[in-house]
Design a protein that fits this description.
Layout lengths: L9 E2 L12 E10 L2 E10 L6 E5 L3 E2 L2 E2 L4 E6 L5 E4 L5 E5 L6 E7 L16 E3 L2 E5 H4 L2 E2 L5 E7 L7 E4 L2 E2 L4 E5 L1 H5 L2 E5 L2 E7 L2 E8 L6 H19 L6 E9 L5 E6 L2 E7 L6 H12 L1 H5 L2 E2 L7 H4 L1 H13 L5 H16 L8 H5 L5 H25 L4 H12 L5 E2 L1 H9 L10 H6 L15 E11 L3 E11 L11
Parallel strand pairs: 2-14, 20-21, 21-23, 24-25
Antiparallel strand pairs: 1-17, 2-3, 3-10, 4-9, 4-13, 5-6, 7-10, 8-9, 11-12, 12-18, 14-17, 15-16, 15-18, 19-20, 22-23, 26-27
Helix pairs in contact: 3-4, 4-7, 7-10, 8-10
Bound molecules: zinc ion.
Zinc ion binds next to loops.
Length: about 475
């Protein structure tokens, strides 16, 4: 459910003199202090009209507290003053009559040991490395409008390299963003390995800090192939730049990821490999560029998770197969695991509204919309193919349509669009399948060709006997050398 915002007007490393004066200037300076590193941040702000502006400080992100990593916030000799509020993460900046205000602060790392999943969103600032989400290091004015922003690293060690949501290198990097999206950025500097490529004239880069058994070029190739496949699917290449970072964390086969502006941050333990799990994470998250990020979702958005998450899982696996990143056998093994989990789940008919109310059932409940949407997408694709209609066309036109202003991904527009793929008599079933009141039918075809269905009956005995019909697929003999057609 992570969001990646990809398409924003961004100018990379342009000469500042060619551009209008920025509304905000940030300078990041890594400073060695005894045996640690800290990050000094210098900010220049042009207030427009008002006498005072609220500043938002890094507080917490993804449940991980960062507030204690900020110190020494002060204004520099301009007549401006800072006034605390009752909320420790908000401070008034009084600047009556001033056309420019300068303030500075320091950020330090809040952990002493290894980065682990669960504290990975907190800034990493240590000798040889700064890795930070904008949410953990940026103090920003609380203004609703987009501002012109200029960011650069200064006084940096000569062997350091730099990558961020807004480009590569020390800068100055120029961008125009709302403060919400500016904080949704990713910043990396230090002893990095970087690889770059081009997808339809736009730079795609990977920046890594850590060591893994795979070659850096393998990760770049994976990112490139997924981005190409997904942009081609939508025939949408309107992306200024894209960065994937990989940061080594502790743990055993641990993997995390977070979608950021024009970028994706990966957190991988040293034993992770480029397997289906990692490939799917990237393909799913990059697909959110069209399915969820540049589009609004109806509220509460859990009502459409079956589409935004479940269909993202379906398309992620599809793109991996069609790009040759997984084999048809791997595709079916992964799908069969999903079918088994769905059709043996006690949450089979858990409604979307239950999910909103905080469903009991933990991960099984959370995963239900993903499974339901993934299987339903297969069924709709196969049903559509049987009558000469294409799920891909319906999904593509739907998503491109809801990208227009004041549209949103919503069940009341999705259901009529998808119903076209079903025979008329089946169309009334769709609402129950999607809402969860009716379980999907295990005997409905998931493929138009290439795979054969077999049904197994499984029993589980708790207090009362439970019986499950579980579908699974294997490749048709004739299709091993042809194509699996999801
Ligand atoms: Zn997702």
């Amino acid at each position: 459910m992570k969001r990646v915002l990809l398409s924003l007007p961004i100018l990379f490393a342009c000469s500042s003199s060619l551009l209008a004066q920025p509304d905000l200037i940030y300078r990041f300076t890594p400073v060695a202090e005894a045996d640690r590193l800290v990050l000094d941040v210098h900010v220049e702000f042009v207030p427009h009209g008002s006498d005072s502006t609220l500043l938002n400080l890094p507080d917490s992100y993804g449940g991980q507290e960062q507030f204690g990593g900020i110190s020494g916030l002060r204004v520099i000799a301009s007549g401006a003053t800072l006034v605390p509020t009752e909320d420790r993460s908000r401070v008034w900046l009084r600047h009556a009559g001033l056309s420019r205000v300068v303030f500075t602060y320091r950020v330090h790392e809040r952990r002493s040991g290894t980065v682990e999943l669960g504290d990975h969103y907190r800034a990493v600032i240590r000798p040889g490395l700064v890795h930070a989400l904008g949410n953990s290091i940026l103090i920003v004015p609380d203004v609703p409008d987009s501002l012109d922003i200029d960011v650069a690293w200064t006084d940096t060690p000569s062997d350091w390299r730099f990558a961020s949501s807004f480009g590569l290198g020390v800068g100055p990097l120029r961008t125009r963003q709302t403060m919400r999206w500016f904080r949704h950025s990713l910043w990396l500097g230090g002893d990095l390995r970087m690889r770059e490529t081009v997808v339809n004239d736009r730079t795609v880069a990977v920046a890594m800090h850590g060591s893994w058994s795979f070659d850096d070029r393998e990760l770049l190739r994976l990112v490139r192939t997924i981005i190409q496949a997904e942009r081609d699917f939508f025939d949408d290449h309107d992306f200024p730049f894209f960065l994937v970072t990989a940061l080594q964390i502790g743990g055993d086969n641990d993997q995390g990821g977070t979608g950021r502006v024009n970028s994706f941050g990966l957190f991988l333990s040293d034993d992770r490999t480029i397997d289906l799990r990692l490939k799917r994470l990237l393909a799913h998250e990059i697909f959110h560029a069209w399915n969820g990020d540049r589009t609004e979702r109806e509220s509460p958005e859990a009502l459409v998770y079956w589409f935004t998450e479940g269909f993202a899982d379906y398309y992620a696996r599809r793109f991996l197969l069609q790009s040759g990143l997984i084999t048809p056998e791997e595709y079916l093994d992964d799908l069969n695991a999903n079918l088994r989990e769905y059709f043996t789940s006690s949450m089979l008919t858990m409604s979307n509204t239950t999910l909103i109310d905080g469903a009991p059932g933990g991960r099984d409940a959370q995963r239900m919309p993903y499974r339901r949407g993934d299987i339903l997408a297969h069924q709709l694709a196969a049903a559509g193919a049987a009558c000469g209609r294409s799920l891909d066309s319906v999904v593509r036109s739907y998503l491109l349509d809801v990208m227009r202003p004041s549209r949103a991904i919503a069940n009341n527009s999705l259901l009529p669009a998808l119903a076209e793929l079903l025979p008329e008599a089946d169309r009334p079933l769709l609402e129950g399948w999607v809402g969860g009141s009716v379980s999907l039918d295990p005997e409905r075809a998931l493929f138009s060709q290439g795979a054969e269905l077999s049904l197994k009956e499984r029993r589980r005995f708790y207090l009362f006997g439970e019986r499950f019909v579980v579908p699974s697929y294997r490749l048709s003999q004739a299709e091993r050398t042809v194509r699996l057609r999801p």
